[in-house]
């Protein structure tokens, strides 16, 4: 429920007040968003249609692409439209909806990355038991639990946001609604809420990053016992995952594990993990994965062949 306050809408200051730079922002982020949609949808369609990409790793990659697409869509379209708008107004309800979407899909991406690390750990450390441990039913249960955990996390964030009273000003020094910029506008002492934010979002980001790095360290150490070909394949897969983890968690930890202070680079750091990472993920997973590239070639070759025969 909306608290008793005089603010019914917010004004987003965006990335830059300069009109020329705003046009550059429009072009750059329109290209990034289109690339995100095309890349992730291509992965989704390929995994769903291909019979060779039925392993748990690609099952989780399918949901990572869904989370990436939704995560970027919760931010990018508004950023693109606002870059051409003189006044970037967002309603109170729209702002709260964006907070909810940002956290549910961002948290889902975190959980899926953890599941992908677990899958690689089992595949490399327990190869004989891997088909039994990571069977289809188990993977489905893990994804359902990830969605439930993401929903609970996002509900915690939105409850904190809804408890904030706003009495003006209503200028958000950001390009999207999130708890950190909203805390600066609240007409109350936000120390405890910021502490809850750090203990929630900050703890999830930091602990997940540590868990992932430890798991990949163990995985890489265990590769010494594999054949040269097996090491090369596993190393290629794990390297892709590690790159994604660093690109996503580095900015998140910077944003969510600190006191409520503002730094000049905050907006650009936020751009990197809200816009940049969803764009880079499909490139990393397709360019470094021979199985995905081969499946894509076969899929589109079959479609082009079938179309030419009509």
Structure characterization notes:
The protein has 310 residues and is mainly alpha-helical. The chain has a single domain (9-309), classed as Rhodopsin 7-helix transmembrane proteins (Rhopdopsin 7-helix transmembrane proteins), CATH 1.20.1070.10. Helix content is 74%, strand content 3%. It is built from eleven helices and three strands. The protein has a three-stranded mixed β-sheet. The model has no long low-confidence stretch (mean pLDDT 85). It holds the Pfam family 7tm_4. GO terms for molecular function: G protein-coupled receptor activity; olfactory receptor activity. Its main location: membrane.
Task: Please trace the helix and strand order, writing H or E for each element.
Answer: EHHHEHHHEHHHHH
Total number of helical segments? 11
Major sheet description: 3 strands, mixed
Secondary structural class: mainly alpha
**What separation lies between the terminal Cα atoms?**
57 Å
Mean of the pLDDT scores? 85
Domain G-protein coupled receptors family 1 profile: 39-285
GO cellular component, one term: plasma membrane
Membrane topology: Multi-pass membrane protein
Pfam family, one: 7tm_4
Characterize this entry briefly.
The protein is built from eleven helices and three strands, in the order βαααβαααβααααα. The chain is an all-alpha fold and 310 residues long.
